[in-house]
Amino acid sequence: MPTAPRFALPAVPAVLLSIVSVQGGAAIAKGLFPVLGAAGTTSLRIGLSALVLLVVVRPRLRELQAAQWRAVVPYGLALGAMNFLFYCALARIPLGLAVTLEFLGPLGLALAGSRRWLDGVWALLAGAGIALIAPWQGSGVDLLGMGFALAAGACWAVYIVLGQRTAAVLPGSVAVAVGMLLATLPVLPFGLTSGLLLHLTSHLLLLGAGLALFSSVLPFTLEMQALRTMPTRTFSILMSLEPVAAAISGWLLLGEQLSLGQWLAVGFIVVASAGATLTTARPQPALHGE
């Protein structure tokens, strides 16, 4: 039976460091968009992440059974689509808004099928958040960017469901490594056809390695470590802080300003997510979508 790493961080600091790491990675990604575009940046991130995980985990692909492939293939495709759509959103709207809208995916999954009146309150609160973000009066928020973020959130919900099915037939590290490899399939064709990957230099590869480390390898490692000892409900509540962390990171690292209404929208959706986690019977462990 596997044991926890000797120098493992306590669970709560591990989750918080994971959140900070992902937002730092998003800032790196946004800096690569002018040169590589969303498709090229996603291809670089997922490709390098897959290489690192394959070297570290060394999954025995030839030994996987048919039932395991049936589980991990859609899981990996959902992972790739989710990341690509999120980067398409991030290229058009501020980081805080992209993460906030994407978070509606796991929130909707947590509320799906619920008949509790309190969960209806969380749904209304999330709806109010969307209303505050929506460009009703030419607020400058890109409508297509919002659509990409919402689509990424839908893929995130699918990814969570498929991830649970995959975890039932594969060890977590193997599932993530093989899933990341398969995640290149829906993304790499767009990255290659854009032609922007031809602009890769040693400097860009170094930035891509940092992106893969901060956005994929480190967060997945920290979150899996935390889930060994932390209840799923506690984990999900901490993850509900991610839209706020994203908004603050966008402000500090990228100089992105949100209006008062947009900050209120972030707050509404964070409260809705945390509240849904507390009141639903089986909270979903919403691992990082972006």
UniProtKB/TrEMBL annotation:
Give compartment(s).
Membrane
Keywords, A to Z, come to:
Membrane, Transmembrane, Transmembrane helix
Q: Which residues cross the membrane?
A: 36-57, 69-87, 93-113, 120-137, 143-162, 174-198, 204-222, 234-254, 260-281
Query: Where is the signal peptide, in residue numbers?
Result: none
- InterPro entries in the record, alphabetically? AA-Vitamin_Transporters, EamA_dom, EmrE-like
Pfam families recorded: EamA
> What's the chief localization of this chain?
membrane
- The name this protein carries in UniProt is EamA family transporter
What family does the entry list? Belongs to the EamA transporter family.
Q: Which SUPFAM superfamilies match?
A: Multidrug resistance efflux transporter EmrE
Q: Does the keyword Transmembrane helix apply?
A: yes
Keyword Protease in annotation? no
Domain EamA, residue spans: 144-274
Topology in the lipid bilayer: Multi-pass membrane protein
Task: Classify the source by domain of life.
Answer: Bacteria
